[in-house]
């Protein structure tokens, strides 16, 4: 399937717009990037550890994650990605991948050649600065995940992730009214938060029993946003969005 | 080293209350909890709720039966 993907660069523009202001000329330059679109199945690797990529992968639809497989087959998920994200943007400047990126759901992606990205960022320093800003926000999210794994209870860690994904999705227009499609299994949540799926299961039951959330058919609705954010100390400052969800 | 089991009820904040204390000689080394029907395909398995001195893991494992659980604990404690 090779549809025209250039209009889909809107997703990247929307993402970058959520963390910075782009001029019309910069938007046009991003929209004219040469891309190769692909439709991928769920759980499909996009790029592997130790690869030397020559392109970046922009997620247009679906979810993806960064991960590493440890000894005994254990998996650590480092981050979840949603449309508008470029999970392997670092490959533009770090030549060897130090982790894997895979889809979690069926996904539509657009591969952007490194050469085109380098030309774009050379011609438009403000776009380079925005992408740099995006990687800094990425680092801020990692810091919060460290707090989650090191210092939050299982319930707080799950709650924090639910709040974080809502604010990120809302910023690119993919969630509203404190509800969104959450296509993650309990194992995937556990692999991301350093929790057994037994604990994830118990936490989800507790949150549902207390009627703080509902979770049906992959649709998560946060019924008590304020209580949930208080429980886990969620403060969206670290996402550095132009507009905050409330 | 020999392992001894003692029934116990555990407050896990869930329906998983049926538990076992595992002693190596006379020292407590692990607490296992039987997973309730809440856990669907994992119901009936034994979950390492807590473990000590090597009989632990950052992400606690599940065991299909007590033989598997005891073998894992024994190995982790250096009993081979």
UniProtKB/TrEMBL annotation, chain A:
Signal peptide: none annotated. It holds the Pfam family cNMP_binding. GO terms for molecular function: DNA binding. SUPFAM superfamilies: cAMP-binding domain-like, Winged helix' DNA-binding domain. Residues 152-226 form the HTH crp-type domain. Keywords: DNA-binding, Transcription, Transcription regulation. This is Crp/Fnr family transcriptional regulator.
UniProtKB/TrEMBL annotation, chain B:
This is Uncharacterized protein. It comes from Methylobacterium terricola. The lineage of its organism: Bacteria, Pseudomonadati, Pseudomonadota, Alphaproteobacteria, Hyphomicrobiales.
């Amino acid at each position: 399937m090779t549809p025209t993907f250039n209009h889909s660069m809107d997703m990247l523009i929307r993402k970058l717009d959520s963390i910075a202001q782009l001029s019309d000329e910069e938007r046009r330059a991003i929209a004219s990037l040469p891309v190769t679109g692909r439709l991928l199945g769920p759980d499909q690797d996009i790029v592997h550890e130790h690869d030397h990529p020559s392109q970046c992968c922009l997620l247009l639809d679906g979810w993806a994650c960064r991960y590493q497989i440890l000894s005994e087959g254990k998996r650590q998920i480092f981050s979840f990605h949603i449309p508008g994200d470029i999970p392997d943007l670092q490959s533009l400047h770090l030549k060897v991948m130090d982790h894997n990126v895979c889809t979690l759901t069926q996904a539509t992606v657009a591969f952007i050649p490194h050469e085109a990205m380098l030309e774009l960022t050379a011609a438009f320093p403000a776009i380079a600065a925005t992408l740099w800003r995006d990687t800094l926000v990425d680092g801020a999210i990692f810091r919060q995940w460290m707090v989650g794994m090191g210092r939050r209870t299982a319930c707080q860690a799950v709650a924090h992730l639910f709040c974080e994904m809502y604010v990120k999705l809302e910023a690119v227009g993919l969630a509203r009214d404190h509800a969104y499609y959450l296509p993650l299994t309990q194992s995937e949540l556990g692999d991301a938060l350093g929790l057994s799926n037994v604990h994830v299961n118990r936490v989800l039951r507790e949150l549902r029993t207390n009627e703080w959330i509902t979770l049906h058919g992959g649709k998560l609705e946060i019924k008590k946003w304020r209580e949930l954010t208080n429980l886990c100390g969620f403060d969206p400052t670290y996402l550095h969005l132009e507009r905050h969800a409330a | 080293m020999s392992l001894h089991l003692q029934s116990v009820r555990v407050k896990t904040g869930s329906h998983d209350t049926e538990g076992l204390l595992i002693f190596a000689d006379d020292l407590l080394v692990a607490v296992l909890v039987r997973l309730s029907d809440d856990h669907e395909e994992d119901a009936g398995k034994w979950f390492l709720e807590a473990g000590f001195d090597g009989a632990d893991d950052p992400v606690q494992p599940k065991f299909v039966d007590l033989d598997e659980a005891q073998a894992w604990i024994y190995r982790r404690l250096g009993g081979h």
